């Protein structure tokens, strides 16, 4: 028994010494494990499948804004269309205003330590004031006159159906509600009012009605709670909305205004008709003087504005007696006209009257060029302090001059950038309708990428707007700008493919990094032609539909024939960063003289060095040998090679031969986790430069180092990786050979103070 035990122990020891296997961790492995399987609903190519469906919700609403008591009340009738193949036992609605309830769980999310210092107003708001109570007050839910049973769970409401809603059937019911409108300046909410010193308010109202949740083939019901960062997943539908406000208010909203003759003055109607044919500059519909005059009193009478909108996923409106209104027409590529609109208080001038509507017009043109022609009849930019938020056809935007009407470039470009961004959201996600609650980057990141393109094109259309700059000074999308985030503390960095609620730096994670990734994909990895075709394909496949991340990733590959699994994995599924450097550069000469290393190589393969007509490579180092070789071509240094060429090439072929004098072996390393194309600039002894781009596949078999041999007729004096900062490389200290010495802190201080 002891012998057997001994044998077993020996066998176990031998077994433990065997090399252990591992899972495939190659950066180029396919994303089969990460991707959802294709189905009849969503194909492996990234297109909607033959069984794709989406449910729809149509709304008829009557809304009343009580300006005196800052309260909004409404009643809606919803017709929900079950286009799925499934029977539904209940419906889910979103009650996003419930995040404003004074006891909302969202108010307690995250950590809240004591700050060592705070402003008196902030401290009082946080610890002394009674919490604002702005959640929905549901008064009734009915169908056909009968009450429906419902259950509210925080920001979601389940409607229990009297009987299951069969596939292909529709269900109509109504909801009556009200809530207190919040001051969005105080709590930085997406919706609410701003109160001015004269007591009047500007309202930007959204998430103001109980809205249907999405039901689809991916999530079933998307009933994830609203915690504040993850935005909205909504179905498409048609809207008929009547909004009653004080009679001296001017309003803009989602949809086509049905009773313009009733709510516009005669002068406003004349100006509106002029604006419909003004393609070069905005026409003021309601002047600053008229807005100021209306603000001298509080109107008690009311007026009802009526809107209709088809195939939209949401509805929002802005209204105030202090609003100025201007418009201009935009000619689209299909020869259709769209109205670019701005509405703003006098505090926005002179900046807004000069630039807002022009920015809207340019944005519509740029986004349409990169995706699809804008399908709605207007796009509205509303000036709201500290706001940046989007809804179909309308958005809130910040950017305010000081009390003297002065503004810096930072304020100007901030305003322009947020208008481009929020108007651009009409395309992503208002039309390409991704799930913002789950995948923030699909609307924010993709939109920020197209925003970057639109900003650059705006600078080209309006060079006077960027006077003093070579190009529009975009904040996001440029690779170098994301470097500080990518090389930051990994404890506070999440992959792009993370839920917005899980992320510390949402601006970098959901906006900046994906925008940069797509810009790099377009400029450095795929090239503009392939990228633009694939991006167009994605946008047009999924306009007015609900895409997932896999649909985007698959379409980009399907339409370009570029395998990008390595790119999606590295940039979107990990927090790896780019760091590629020059590890070593060796110089070689070619000779007929045998070398020790050459002989060893031939003998290793069973050849006799004295019988093989071989040529040899000599590494730089032997000064006397180099002196005899320098300046000569390889044919001059190798008689054997010269004889071979003379015997095997025609005179015409010999005339076309490249005959280098120098050979270099350059080794590149990759301390960073991301694999990226290897972009190298070589500088020669005559001062000339040459750019060489190696495909990302150079890293396929070795994730650490890559060696390249360079044959040259000129001596190489410098090698630089990524000279134009295209890849977001986080460490430039290893990018050059010879290594560029950077001064230490003392030397920098001395250099800055000398003289």
From TrEMBL:
Q: Which terms are listed as keywords in the entry? A: Aminopeptidase, Hydrolase, Protease
- CDD domains attached here? M1_APN_like
| Molecular-function GO terms, alphabetical | aminopeptidase activity; metallopeptidase activity; zinc ion binding
The reply to whether 4Fe-4S figures as a keyword in the UniProt entry is no
Using the UniProt annotation, give all residue ranges assigned to the region (Disordered).
1-25, 731-755
Q: Which domain of life is it from?
A: Bacteria
Q: Where is the composition biased (Low complexity)?
A: 10-20
Instruction: Give every Peptidase M1 membrane alanine aminopeptidase domain span.
Output: 408-571
Q: What is this protein called?
A: Secreted aminopeptidase
UniProt source species: Zunongwangia profunda (strain DSM 18752 / CCTCC AB 206139 / SM-A87)
């Amino acid at each position: 028994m002891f012998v057997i035990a001994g044998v077993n122990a020996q066998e176990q020891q031998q077994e433990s010494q065997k090399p252990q296997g591992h899972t495939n961790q190659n950066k180029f492995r396919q994303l089969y494990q990460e991707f959802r399987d294709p189905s009849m609903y969503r194909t492996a190519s990234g297109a909607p499948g033959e069984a794709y469906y989406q449910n729809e919700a149509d709304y008829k609403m009557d809304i009343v804004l009580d300006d005196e008591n800052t309260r909004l009340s409404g009643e809606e009738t919803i017709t929900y269309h079950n286009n799925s193949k499934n029977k539904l036992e209940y419906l889910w609605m979103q009650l996003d205003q419930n995040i404003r309830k004074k006891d909302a769980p969202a108010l307690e999310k995250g950590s809240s330590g004591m700050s060592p210092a705070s402003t008196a107003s902030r401290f009082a708001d946080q610890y002394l004031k009674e919490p604002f109570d702005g959640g929905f007050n549901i008064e009734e839910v009915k169908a056909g006159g009968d009450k429906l049973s419902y259950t509210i769970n925080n920001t979601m409401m389940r409607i229990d159906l009297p009987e299951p809603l069969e596939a292909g059937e529709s269900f109509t019911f109504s909801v009556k509600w009200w809530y207190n409108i919040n001051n969005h300046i105080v709590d930085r909410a997406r919706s609410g009012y701003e109160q001015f010193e004269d007591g009047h308010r500007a309202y930007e109202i959204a998430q103001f009605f109980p809205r249907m949740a999405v039901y689809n083939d991916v999530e079933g019901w998307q009933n994830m709670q609203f915690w504040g960062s993850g935005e909205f997943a909504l179905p498409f539908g048609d809207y008929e909305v009547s909004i009653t406000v004080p009679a001296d208010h001017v309003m803009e909203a989602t949809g086509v205004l049905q009773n313009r003759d009733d709510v516009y003055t005669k002068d406003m109607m004349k100006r509106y008709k002029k604006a419909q044919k003004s393609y070069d500059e905005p026409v003021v519909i309601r002047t600053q003087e008229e807005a100021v005059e209306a603000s001298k009193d509080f109107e008690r009478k009311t007026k009802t504005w009526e809107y209709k909108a088809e195939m939209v996923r949401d509805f929002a409106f802005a209204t105030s007696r202090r609003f100025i209104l201007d418009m201009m027409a935009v000619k689209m590529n299909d020869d259709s006209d769209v109205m670019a609109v701005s509405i703003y208080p006098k505090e926005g001038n002179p900046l807004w009257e000069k630039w807002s509507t022009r920015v809207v017009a340019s944005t519509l043109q740029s986004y349409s060029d990169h995706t699809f022609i804008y399908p709605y009849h207007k796009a509205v930019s509303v000036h709201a302090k500290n706001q940046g938020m989007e809804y179909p056809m309308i958005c809130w935007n910040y950017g305010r001059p000081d009390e003297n009407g002065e503004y810096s470039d930072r304020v100007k470009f901030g305003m322009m950038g947020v208008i481009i961004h929020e108007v651009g959201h009409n395309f992503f996600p208002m039309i390409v309708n991704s799930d913002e609650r789950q995948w923030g980057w699909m609307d924010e990141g993709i939109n920020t990428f197209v925003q970057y393109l639109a900003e650059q094109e705006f600078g080209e259309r309006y060079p006077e707007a960027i006077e003093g700059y070579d190009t529009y000074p975009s904040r996001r999308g440029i690779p170098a700008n994301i470097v500080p985030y990518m090389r930051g503390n990994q404890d506070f960095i999440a992959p792009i493919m993370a839920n917005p609620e899980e992320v510390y730096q949402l601006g970098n994670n959901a906006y900046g990094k994906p925008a940069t990734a797509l810009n790099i994909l377009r400029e450095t990895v795929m090239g503009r032609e392939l990228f633009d075709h694939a991006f167009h394909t994605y946008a047009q496949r999924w306009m007015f539909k609900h895409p997932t991340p896999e649909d985007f990733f698959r379409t980009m590959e399907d339409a370009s024939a570029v395998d990008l699994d390595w790119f999606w994995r590295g940039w979107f599924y990990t927090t790896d960063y780019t760091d590629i450097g020059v590890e070593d550069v060796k110089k070689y000469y070619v000779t007929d003289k045998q070398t020790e290393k050459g002989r060893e190589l031939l003998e290793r393969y069973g050849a006799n060095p004295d019988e093989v007509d071989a040529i040899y490579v000599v590494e730089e180092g032997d000064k006397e040998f180099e002196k005899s070789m320098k300046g000569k071509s390889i044919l001059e240094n190798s008689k054997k090679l010269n004889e071979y060429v003379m015997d095997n090439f025609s005179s015409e072929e010999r005339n076309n031969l490249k005959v280098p004098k120098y050979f270099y072996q350059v080794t590149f390393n990759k301390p960073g986790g991301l694999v990226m194309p290897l972009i190298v600039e070589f500088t020669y002894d005559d001062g000339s430069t040459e750019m060489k781009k190696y495909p990302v596949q150079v890293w396929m078999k070795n994730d650490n180092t890559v060696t390249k041999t360079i044959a040259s007729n000129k001596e190489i004096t410098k090698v630089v990786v990524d000279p134009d900062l295209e890849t977001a490389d986080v460490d430039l200290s290893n990018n050059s050979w010879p290594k560029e010495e950077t001064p230490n802190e003392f030397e920098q201080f001395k250099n800055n103070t000398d003289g």
